């Protein structure tokens, strides 16, 4: 088991190294995304400023908590864009076109290779800018950052990055079973867009069920924000870890079942 993990880590490092070499061969392709993603980030900030300029509170949260919420969602999304988004996002097309056949013949996990073969360093500035927003929000709330608080917040961010990854893989794995996932992808985009602007603490009833359990994008920035602002609880930890674990099992089940019933286009 240990050898398998080491081999997988070595393979991922090789993939990332090859990706950087490829990008550096085309300098504009390497540096261009820095400018594009940075510009999009600034546009996002202006949109949030326009929405919340004249609003002092959103539900139980003040401006400080909202800034932390925005920074957290942006941070999770930025890491997603850097590490796995562009690889995972191509899964549906590769299944439909039969390109996934090339991955099935390799000795490593097809999902592992798909996830890390399109690393995007152009989104790294978004990670740094998101951290700056978080720092500003922490200052507005007057939060004293201790090593324990920082470690707990980092643990929440990692959990939410994993959850987002699981959700993306689940939705794209449905291509194994249905003709088109376009409508499901639109639902995903709408859910992310909504939960990026509205914190989960204001959801009630059916909306809370939908965005806390069925499409749990509502907890991605909400739970880390609750934790760092001192409103976290053991129940929240149990629920968050339970959701990530449950969706992890569902991800593995759908992917493995889909591969078993997959018929090669070439066949």
Automatic annotation (TrEMBL):
Keyword flag Protein biosynthesis: no
One Pfam family it belongs to: ABC2_membrane_6
InterPro entries: ABC-2_transporter-like
Transmembrane segments: 28-54, 66-86, 119-138, 150-167, 209-230, 236-255
Keyword Lipid metabolism listed: no
Keywords annotated in UniProt: Membrane, Transmembrane, Transmembrane helix
Residues spanning the signal sequence: none
Name of the protein in question: ABC transporter permease
